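Input record (one chain):
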Amino acid sequence: MGCFASKSLEHLPNNKNLAVIAEETSFSIDEVEALYQLFKNISSLVVKDGLIHKEEFQLALFGNKNQRNFFADRVFDIFDNNCDGVIDFREFITSLSAFHPNAPFETKIAFSFKLHDLRNSGYIERAELKEMVLALLHESNLELPYVVVELIVDNSFSQVDLNGDGRIDIDEWKTFVSKHPSIINNLTLPYLKDMTLVFPSFLMHDQEDDPSM
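The corresponding structure, as predicted from the sequence alone:
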């Protein structure tokens, strides 16, 4: 589990590669092309190298490259499939595909499992679930007594750890999410269904930045 070698050294695809990527994801060719423009804009916010660095990822999400967020860090780590510290376009588009409204339910389940599998061990341990709960409370500016947090973690973990072996595997997670699909509602971004209509400003970005316009 964890990081994998990149399939290609090309992080700036040509039109042929865009078509191939569309076939491998839930996006249409037009959506892939629009997302490529978005990717180019994000990947040039700090370092113009055709790759998204964590600072650029934070800047795109929050407008501040120094603002840290536990869940944003986790998403970045999952997108960075080969763990080289940056996101190339193929990593960006294939990972983002999990958020597409047409993405298979199992794809969303797999992504949510990775989100909770903090150590990339192939299992969700109780300590990892507790870390997620604490991060959620922190991001929400909520403070709960230690005993309450432990109770929440214990109750939540026991509901998913069906065989009681002290860890949650992908099948147990799949069973739990199938009974409670609202858990992965935030893994569906409706506007990804037609990027060409929702984000025309990204397509016009270069012209807007041109002082002669």
